[in-house]
Amino acid sequence: MSVKSTITRALTAGAALAVTAATLLIPSSSATATQESIAKGPKPTIVLVHGAFADASSWNGEIAELERRGYPVIAPSNPLRSVASDAASVRSVIRSIKGPVVLVGHSYGGQVLTNAAYNEPNVKALVYIAAFIPAKGESAFDLSNKFPGSTLGPTLQPVPLVDGGVDLYVKQDLFWKQFAADVPRAQAKLMAATQRPITEAALKEASGNPAWTKIPSWSLIPTGDKNIPAEAQRFMSKRAHAHTVEVKGASHAVLVSQPHKVTQLIIAAANGS
Q1: Confidence class for position 256, pLDDT limits 50, 70, 90
Q2: pLDDT tens for residues 104-120?
Q3: What is the mean pLDDT of the chain?
Q4: Considering only CA atoms, which of 87, 111, 52, 93 is closest in space to residue 102?
Q5: Among candidates 78, 86, 71, 80, which has minimal Cα distance to 56?
Q6: Distance (Å, rounded) from C-alpha 200 to C-alpha 166?
Q7: Dihedral of the CA atoms 53, 202, 224, 147 (nearest 10)?
Q8: Secondary structure of the chain in the HEC alphabet?
Q9: What is the rounded distance in angstroms from the CA atom of residue 74 to the CA atom of residue 256?
Q10: pLDDT score of 10 more than 80
């Protein structure tokens, strides 16, 4: 090999290395995204509030996916005793968290978070999943009957309480078709057996000042919901100026049957998109 050829090859290799080095110094789109993510600070804590006739385990699918994506998650027990006391319970959780919070509520849990988040500065987004989004003075009972379509009433089993109040359950043999028609029947049977009751008084209690007037909102509407008619959910979502998606044919238990779609909306809210 000639000296000239050797010099030419060396120069060519050096140029290639220079180009490679320069390329490494130029941020790729993924690197830029990572830098932006770091600049935004830590991810918000996602607080998941279950509704009536359910418990915190109804969020298991969302919890698993959110944690895989690096989000801290808390799914507290919602007492289901009264709007005011339930909201106070959730508010205590909010105030225990350092940093931003995204509040997510299913069904009656939506009414609870609407009250709990009012004037709480670290709550950055509200997410309603097949949920009530009440205005001041409205009750869950009022809103579920505002539009036709709810078949919940006849499925309820009242249980008298020693204080004179009444707990309400969904009758176990009717739970699957009423509450969770798109969930495998065996799983729905377990949900029916472990459901937590809500007091009749809580469903009829007037809501207080709504947080959605001050905090951006997102809403997921399952069109096959037999508890809260889809039309009622559309009305509430529109009034709250919520970013809204619909899941065709999904039941009231959409958080159990479609956890990935619910998680996608929660992440959109966390990102403000």
Answers
A1: very high
A2: 999 999 999 999 999 99
A3: 89
A4: 93
A5: 78
A6: 6
A7: 160
A8: CCHHHHHHHHHHHHHHHHHHHHHHHCCCHHHHHHHHHHHHCCCCEEEEECCCCCCHHHHHHHHHHHHHCCCCEECCCCCCCCHHHHHHHHHHHHHCCCCCEEEEEECHHHHHHHHHCCCCCCEEEEEEECCCCCCCCCCHHHHHCCCCCCCCHHHEEEEECCCCCEEEEECHHHHHHHHCCCCCHHHHHHHHHHCCCEEHHHHHCCCCCCHHHCCCEEEEEECCCCCCCHHHHHHHHHHCCCEEEEECCCCCCHHHHCHHHHHHHHHHHHHCC
A9: 17
A10: no
Whether the CB-CB separation of 137 and 111 falls below 8 Å is answered with no
Assess if CATH 3.40.50.1820 describes domain 42-271.
yes
Token pair, residue 249, equals 């044919």
Between helix 60-68 and helix 259-271 the angle, nearest 10°, is 50
Q: Specify the pairing of strand 45-49 against strand 123-129.
A: unpaired
Is the Cα dihedral 171, 259, 235, 245 positive or negative?
A: negative
Q: In what order do the strands lie in the sheet with 156-160?
A: 156-160, 166-170, 198-199
Residue located via tokens 């508890």: 227
pLDDT tens digits, one per residue of 220-238: 999 999 999 999 999 999 9
**Is the pTM above the cut of 0.70?**
yes
17-33 as b/e: b if 16+ CB within 10 A:
eeeeeeeeeeeeeeeee
The tokens for 59 are: 């969020």
